[in-house]
Amino acid sequence: MRTHGRRPALLRMLATFGTLLALSGCLGPVSLHQAVLGYDRSVSRIKWELLLLNIARLHYGLPVHFTVTSSIAATFDYRTSLGVGGIYNDTPGYFAPSFNVGVTVAENPTLSIVPMQGREFTERVLDPSGEEKFEFLVFQGSPIDMVMRLMADGIEMQTPDGRFERFILNWPSHPQEYEEFRRVALQLAWLNANRKLFVGRLSFVESTPAMLSAPPSADEVRNAVEKNYRWRQATDSGRYHLQRRVIGRVAITNYDPRTLTDAEREALNAKAADNPRNFVLIDLRPGHPGGDWPLFGALKLRSFNQILDFVAEGAGGVQEYNVAKDPRTGEVGANPPQALAIAIGEQVPPDEIPSASFRGRYYTVADTTWDRKAFGLLYQLFQVTVTDVSQVGVPVTISK
Q: What are the residues facing 233 on neighbouring strands?
């Protein structure tokens, strides 16, 4: 029997079979890779569309509504089937091979979304933002004037002893106050760009004298440590004091607070603590950079809902406008008319530009460097506002 005529066909069949097998093995990782990136794009797009949709709702005088995608669980079922066969005939040289390669990919994603409502909605959307969010965003490198223009409702001007003097509103419907606020924001931006501005928490050592002339006992030392206190002996009187390090309120200064004494920092913190947590102390003193324009007061921060309302107002109500810097302010960078410009039109915007459709119109972030960064800042605020979903009720689960 002659078999040399069948060997080339058999070798070709095995080579084809091996190639198909290798290709089928590559499909699984590729599918998984594309699916993970696809979910990431979808979730991020949902979040920015929610922001723009709520801006559009406020533009029409409608209430806002938020949902959070709390989890995504996707199951991938990848199967490969192979079949090889052939027909052999006694006729010399006759061999008809056959093979079958099958690949099956099944995907079963489950998404859980949490509607923001009740206490969580109040605390995260309606309550004013805390000073820690302002400090966090500035510490991350966001321009301080951009953060102020979005987050601050205005500046409460105070006397050096902390008494209320007047309020500077950050709304263009009050032009004189709005322009003064913008000039203060540019002054702080100039100082910050030149590393002459300090934004952070006041830290000081709080001391409580104790009537001890002898060293404290072991139990007294242990009890003090449990309450974050330490015993210290005064060098002048020899008596012992209880001390602890206090991390206080956030302050914006044109000097390094660490150059002050503990007593001075404690007194400054007491003035900051006279205001609620949504106020950020400002203390620009003479004799320091920018000191020819001294200022003492506090930024009043908005709620997230007010921030969106401010942006929505600029999209179709009383709009912001150009404000020049004060002559005492040095050269500054970008100073656009609007804190975040939202364009409204009927044409479909490009996919790479954040946009959302509402009532047949598209709300799109203006395609400028400033507006893209400002929208990114708004997105970060959205993250720190609504991402804690651990204490909410039963989520709505969508199984696809």
A: 240
Residue located via tokens 């005088």 = 61
Residue 356 and residue 116 in contact, taking contact as beta carbons nearer than 8 Å: no
Return all residues near 169 (Cβ < 8 A) that are at least 6 apart.
Answer: 153, 154, 177, 178, 181
Burial pattern 165-179, b for ≥16 Cβ within 10 A else e, equals eeebbbebebeebbb
Q: Give the Cα separation of 304 and 116 in Å (integer).
A: 13
Tokens in use for 187?
């002054």
Cβ burial, residue 326 (10 Å; 0-12/13-18/19+):
middle
pTM of the model: 0.76
- Tens place of pLDDT per residue across the chain (400 aa): 454 555 565 555 556 555 555 555 555 565 666 666 766 676 678 788 899 999 999 999 999 888 776 666 666 666 666 666 666 565 555 556 666 666 666 667 776 777 777 887 888 888 999 999 999 999 989 999 999 999 999 999 998 888 899 999 999 999 999 999 999 999 999 999 999 999 999 998 877 766 666 676 666 666 666 666 666 666 666 666 777 788 899 999 999 999 999 999 999 999 999 999 999 999 999 999 999 999 999 999 999 999 999 999 988 778 999 999 999 999 998 999 999 999 999 998 888 889 999 999 999 999 999 999 999 999 999 888 754 434 444 444 444 4
Q: How many residues does the chain have?
A: 400
Per-residue burial over 235-270, b if 16 or more Cβ lie within 10 Å, else e, is eeeeebbbbeebebbbbbbbbebeebeeeebbebbe
Q: Are 152 and 299 in contact (CB under 8 A)?
A: yes
- CA 39: distance to chain centroid? 20
String of DSSP letters for 306-356: HHHHHHHHHHHSS-----PPPTTS---S---SSSS-EEEESSPPPTTS-EE
- CA dist 376 and 365 (Å) reads 10
Token pair recorded at residue 105: 């990919």
Distance CA 330, CA 192 (A): 11
Query: Alpha carbon 151 to chain centroid distance?
Result: 13
The beta strand positions in 285-395, using DSSP E, are 295-301, 342-345, 355-358, 361-365
CB 250 within 8 A of CB 199: yes
